[in-house]
Design goal:
The protein has 416 residues and is α/β, with parallel strands linked by helices. It contains 14 helices and 15 strands.
């Protein structure tokens, strides 16, 4: 299958696909949709930004179009974050006009009464985060007794993030006969056995190298002292063009950095777990609309946040595990566009960078850090060269002449 026109779809769904210019299927869509429409369980991994949401949304909507309308939840989509749940609901709503299929979002940080009202009106597709859904189930506010289709989106991360007890409680409320769909950018070895315990004779789909960033993303890594990171970030903002998504390790760090950038006259906003959902929505929408050039975020934004044309991702702090590097970097270079990823690492984190290199099978070349003002309270050391790593330099940035120090690839060590 190459084009959606090759699938036997209802007139309403076909019209909605055409209206939204969904003509050519991506590889994960082409491989996942046919078995899902046959009712098979599917476990699919594909790089971020390759169209996984549409891969499960089309079979679900087509299946629901063929059954009588009722006020029972027939399809459940579980995601690890509120933002991803909201994004999925938006994507599905673009495909349901004319079908009379209703949707509801069940997440924390938003009006409980509004969510329950949407369900009571007859939402047949519910997109939920595990915690809030478990709360509703415990209070017997919703029923999943008629839910025959379930999607675990970013399945491995939900298991790794500690959602396993909640997921088990949810699955116990589902009919024994159900269709399972597990989608993610990666499936880590540590949780693979748990993932496969939920499916029956699944079709396994793996598109591309799920442990590699997209080929259209240029990877960079600066080795620099922690107290010089903010100076380097401001330097990049002066030298490169386009929007920038900056990841920090902590909420406090995100707030501090966004305030520092604002004082420097840089339009920026921030997203993290301590902000209310309305604040997070406003921040994300402002970034999408171009009101803010920089969005500073913790890993709450690493999955599911789709903003068109993010030019650069900055790992201001390293991710906790190498797989999260993929999801952060996946926020840029989407849908065939080109993007850049910049990682700031201290000398003590050199081994962590090597771990990411080895895990992702990438090679890094080093070059000098641009001249920066010395950190407050520090006298610059004459003759010390601080190094950075780069795969290739973007056309929007002019860096000093480079000096190649070393490169690394799996199975090969040493200088060259």
């Amino acid at each position: 299958m190459t084009h959606f026109s090759e699938i036997n779809l209802s007139a309403a769904l076909r019209k909605n696909l055409d209206r939204n210019n969904f003509i050519i299927a991506t590889p994960v869509q082409a491989q996942a949709i046919p078995p899902l429409m046959e009712g098979r369980d599917v476990v699919a991994t594909a790089q971020t930004g390759t169209g996984k949401t549409l891969a499960f949304a089309i079979p679900i909507i087509e299946a629901l179009i063929g059954v009588p309308r009722s006020k029972s939840i027939k399809a459940l989509i579980i995601s690890p974050t509120r933002e991803l749940a909201i994004q999925i609901e938006k994507a599905i709503s673009e495909l349901t006009p004319g079908t009379h299929i209703r949707t509801a979002v069940v997440v924390g940080g938003m009006s409980e009464s509004h969510q329950l009202r949407d369900i009571e009106k007859g939402a047949e597709i519910v997109i939920a985060t595990p915690g809030r859904l478990c709360d509703y189930l415990d209070r017997r506010l919703v029923s999943l007794s008629k839910t025959a289709m379930i999607v675990l989106d970013e399945a491995d991360r939900m298991l790794d993030m500690g959602f396993l007890p909640s997921l088990r409680a949810i699955l116990e409320k589902l009919p024994a006969k159900r269709q399972m769909m597990l989608f993610s950018a990666t499936i880590e070895t540590s949780v693979a056995h748990l993932v496969h315990s939920y499916v029956h004779n699944p079709v396994r789909i793996e598109v591309g190298a799920s442990t590699l960033p997209a080929e259209q993303v240029d990877l960079y890594c600066f080795e620099i002292e922690a107290r010089s990171k903010s100076d380097l970030l401001r330097y990049l903002l002066r030298k490169v063009q386009g929007s920038m998504l900056v990841f920090t390790a902590t909420r406090t760090g995100a707030d501090r950095l966004s305030q520092l950038l604002a004082r420097a006259g840089i339009s920026c906003t921030v997203i993290h777990g301590e902000r209310s959902q309305s604040e997070r929505n406003r921040a994300l929408q402002g970034f999408k609309d171009g009101n803010f050039r920089v969005l500073v975020a913790t890993d709450v934004a690493a999955r599911g946040i789709h903003v068109d044309d993010i030019a650069h991702v900055v790992n201001y702090d390293l991710p906790q595990i190498p797989e999260d590097f993929i999801h952060r970097v996946g926020r840029t270079g989407r849908a065939g566009a080109r993007g850049s990823s910049w990682t700031f690492a201290t000398p003590l984190e050199r081994s962590d960078i090597r771990g990411i290199e080895k895990m992702l099978n990438v090679r890094i070349e080093y070059q000098d850090v641009p001249s920066l003002p010395p950190p407050i309270g520090r006298v610059p050391d004459d003759g010390i060269i601080v190094r950075t790593a780069a795969v290739s330099a973007p056309s929007a940035m002019v860096l000093p002449p480079t000096r190649k120090v070393r490169s690394f690839s799996p199975g090969r060590r040493g200088r060259r």
